[in-house]
Amino acid sequence: MLKYLLPLILFIVMAIFLAIGLGLKPNEIPSPLLNKPAPAFAAPKLQAPNEKLAAADLKGQVWLFNVWASWCVSCREEHPVLNQLARQQAVVIIGLNYKDDPAAAKNWLDTLGNPYNVSIMDQDGRIGLDWGVYGVPETFVMDKKGIVRYKHTGPVMPDDVQTIFLPLIAQLQAEAP
Predict the structure, then answer these.
(1) For residue 119, is it within any domain?
(2) What is d(CA 79, CA 111) in angstroms, rounded to the nearest whole number?
(3) Is the pLDDT of residue 5 over 90?
(4) Among 45, 67, 148, 155, which one is least packed by beta carbons within 10 Å?
């Protein structure tokens, strides 16, 4: 009897774990960086590889840090949303071109539009690793002191801009540096 009951119990346990997993929201993956200083970086600019941008260069302003790649299907989905956000000039948008070919990345921006004030290159993925990137796209909101205030996993959608990003950006810009 036990030999028939054990597979049934294992099946029920697996079904419970599956049900729990299906109820999780992947864009709510917690980040250990929340409310902590952004990891330092200094990386070459995609459009000017002889120049570098560092996180310290952005202190004193609210900024978005969007991790993207030309090979990323979800990045293509969010790209028009980022272009629209850039047209609003509500915030500085910094791109982190993640594990990508620079020529392909430049072609992507030339073809689809460039929402980034600056995009930096992370060909070996080390900056992404420091930021705890699970995959692309991911977007972080930084305050004027360089503290991570929000992390969005997955493509940014128009509703996200209206309900999450713009209100948070306005709040952070109203705070003293």
Answers:
(1) yes
(2) 11
(3) no
(4) 45
Amino acid at 66: N
Residue with tokens 């991570």: 148
How many Cβ atoms are within 10 Å of 148's Cβ, its own excluded? 21
d(C-alpha 71, C-alpha 146), whole Å: 29
* 3-state secondary structure at position 81: helix
Query: The domain containing residue 135 runs over which residues?
Result: 48-174
Q: What domain count does the chain have?
A: 1
Residue 130 token pair: 């420091």
Whole-model pTM?
0.84
Q: Could you give phi then psi for residue 79, rounded to 5 degrees?
A: -60, -45
Report the distance separating Cα 152 and Cα 65, nearest Å: 10
Q: Does the residue 61 lie in any domain?
A: yes
Distance CA 20, CA 9 (A): 17
The tally of CA atoms less than 13 A away on the side-chain side of residue 100 is 29
Residue at token pair 């020529």: 103
Q: Residue 92: CB partners within 8 Å, gap ≥ 6?
A: 58, 61, 62, 63, 64, 117
pLDDT tens figures, 109-164? 999 999 999 999 999 999 999 999 988 999 999 999 999 999 999 999 999 999 99
Residues forming beta bridges with residue 152, ordered by sequence position? 139
The size of the chain, in residues, is 177
